[in-house]
Predict the structure of TonB-linked SusC/RagA family outer membrane protein.
Amino acid sequence: MRFDINKSENINSSKIIVLMKTKFTLLFVLLNMFYFQLQAQDRIISGTVTSEPDGVSLPGVNVLVKGTSTGTITDFDGNYSISASENDILIFSFLGFETIEESVGARNNINVLMAESASSLGEVVLVGYGSTRKQDVTGSITRINAEELLKQPALTPTQSLQGKAAGVQIISSGAPGSSPVVRIRGTGTVQAGRDPIYVVDGIITDRIDNISSEDITTIDILKDASSLAIYGTRGANGVIIVTTKAGKIGKMQIDISSYFGVKDVLSSVDMANSSSYVDFTNRAFGFQRFDQEQQYDTDWYDEITRIGTVTNHNISVSGGTEKMTSYFSANYFEEEGILIGNDYRRLNLRSKATYNLSSKLKFDHNISLSLNRSVPKPFSTFTTAYKQSPIVPVRYIGGSFDGRFGVPFDNSGARFNNVGNAVADLVLNDEKRKNLVLQGNVSATYDFTDYLSGTTRFGIESGYGKSYTFTPNLEQFLAGDPTREVSDFDSPNRNTLRVRKDDFYHWVFDAFLTFDKNFSEKHGVKVTLGTTAEEEQNDFLEGTRNNVPEDSNLFSLNNGEQGTDVVSNALSDKRRLRSYFARLNYDFDNKYLLTATIRRDGSSVFANTDEKWGNFPSVGLGWLISNEEFLNNSNFLNTLKLRASWGQLGNQNIPLNALTFDSNLGTVFGPDQVLVPGSTITAIIDENVGWEVTEEYDIGVEFSFLDNRLSGEFDYYDRLNKNAILPISLPDAFGASGITLTHAGKIRNKGLEFALNWNDKISDDFNYHISGNITTNDNNLEEITNPFAFEQQGGSIDNGQVTKLLRVGQPLGSFFLLEVEGFDERGEFVYRDLNNDGEIDNDDRQFFGSIQPDIFYGISGGFDYKNWDFNIEGYGNAGSMVYNGKKAQRFGGENIEASVANNIFNFDNGSNMNPAPSNEVLPSSTYFLESGDFFRINNITVGYTLPDVFTGVEKIRVYALAQNPFIFKEFTGFTPELPGNGDPLASSGIELNAYPSVKSYIVGVNLNF
């Protein structure tokens, strides 16, 4: 604007003043507008979105500036960044979670906790090298939350999983410090490793018995090839992903939990008393060997058992700021077993921290220490107590196990059986073990953009163990037979001390990129590319010396007799694995899903270069039918998803082939008859041995109805081990008489899984839930592909007899026995002459079931009413068989069960099915085979949460729990749950030297500050 006063005769001074005021007013308004614009301009807001209450990162959450089209999604770690102003409102939405709105204000960092809605498809589950929404999963994954684990207190979290996941069979032992056998979708191998792997906070390990359940947030069980293929050779037997607790932003949180309980045998076995024993044994020998009037009537099971106890204390401290969160816990667990002297103690320490170094860079580290001490006792004591005669006393005059201090009981000098003293076995077995396990990892994640991030992490696991075993040879010799004298001991070694040290290490390195972006609001693409490397090795050093001082404070090899040293040492081969992997997840219009995975593994286990590398692909398809328009207005159906997958998995945990030599082949040559030493290789190595490859198909349906109150999942699976490793015996023409391992068979597992859950809230004061799952599995050795493969026998019962056979068309762990048809005139068994040749031998054996159940299932239910909570869980299986191996131990004078002694077959009472008394070793037959079907109540819990009556205490809950209080079974032994060593051809499914199941009664308290 231009003013010329000289030429503007019509403009007076007042007008000029008005115009000047207007000019300055406009300038002031413009300056203020500019100032406020500066104040309201957009800036970068970042943060992390996690689920409530477990704090698991949520990928794929939609973050939108309200009233605009500006938006983004969180990456696989739940991180996001978005441009917004202080007056804006951010909307966080995610399928399956409640939508949240957050005002920006002056904050630059906004972290959000999202609560799940009722639909389970919105739940976030962990997959290999990342996480995803359950609705986007095309494979079979089951999630177990922390509150479900804590309903079943146990030493190791895997015990608490029993009955909670379809397709997962867990066979527990009652022994202190023991870990259960875990089988996911059946047993698919004979010679290779059968156990699943565990992934703890991203680090692969073979064990989680060093983790307390109180430290766990979630467990995700990967079951099918589509979800497992990214683990390649590590995923053949399933993967269990464990996420431990982490700190949360906010004030410091302190949680304390403690419980105490007592334990006893769940189901006992009644043995014959002295009167029944004497009558039975005299008839077995055919003459009056023992008098009816006996001085002793010993209950050997009562003598070796006690009321056990269990104690658990846990404390955790957590908290954090927007820059750092941390979590620390300490756990002490102690158990006194039902077997006298069998004790176990464990201390766990765990620390975990997350540092948000910037809006793009996050750093994590965690470390755990587990120290355990155990006092093992031989489980064979249970069999010894079963066999020992009730007329034998526990101790003699002077309190010893023999007669050195007085006249021993010898029943007129007759030696009446070959069984030792079960109590002496416990007292004289002096063994102690210590183990230290360290696990730790560090990881860093950098967000290059809001859709591209990179993660690298390194984890290491190291273990150290030491033990000693003191064997009082003289004392054991004397306790074995009360008629023995010290002068009868003809060895110079009165005792032996064995000291052993073990250590192992295992490290894992991962590095991967994740691209996660939506295009045109309908196309969701997520790509993961990465590499991983592993290495592990084990070794031990063991030494023994004789005649050390009989004082545990002096148990040192240096104190033993010189010249009696024996040293042994072994160092395992290093196992190295190098892998590359890629995964594509594609989602179109939130309806149609694709997952494609490829992993390439290279292993040092295999000698042949051509066999070192293997490729393991998978593909999965999914259809979210409930998101189709024709179902949008359904008042009945909430979610419905159909999925199908195919994939291949590898197993590198095979026994290493080794050359075996026979050096005792010397012969005499020449006129001087000189002995020339000779040796030869007795077995041939198959250098072409490689991965066992499992191929699997899976079809599944996931659904929820009635406002998500009813939900469930159904799967059909078919998995085939295409090249199972079996032993073969080559003809003599090959010049080797030993056993060679090679790919020689096909093993198939196929079945159905069905899970159903009902949750309903009647009022603010009352809600209840009922759930159940059932799995059918058909296990079968489908084909033998090598003509030199032989039928493996197994299942020894320590009396010269075997019980199992591996044969085409039969499940692994099948019992191969003679069939008892009836009794002859002497009351002895008559066996079926299968081939009608007039002789009873191995050719007359046939198959009678296996240790593999046809069905296993779990159920649970409970309710919350005001401050009260109640829960009950059960587990069972059907279709399996178990062998009563301890019952087959009568060789001459051993005890028998009361039911046997009192129900001997006679022609007047043909219903009694026990043979006439005998001291002969009976062949393996259907007489000893029993049903393994059972149903057990796993736990019954009643809890009460106290009202807020203590300042500073957020919550106090007290509870009482009955664990394994009832079992319904047909088996006459201690327990039909017989994990053995996990080998289907060995002791699994045979009750011999097995620990009984136990029941526990526990009281506890949880405090939150």
In short: The first strand starts at residue 43 and ends at 52. Residues 43-117 form a domain with the Immunoglobulin-like fold (CATH 2.60.40.1120). The mean pLDDT is 87.
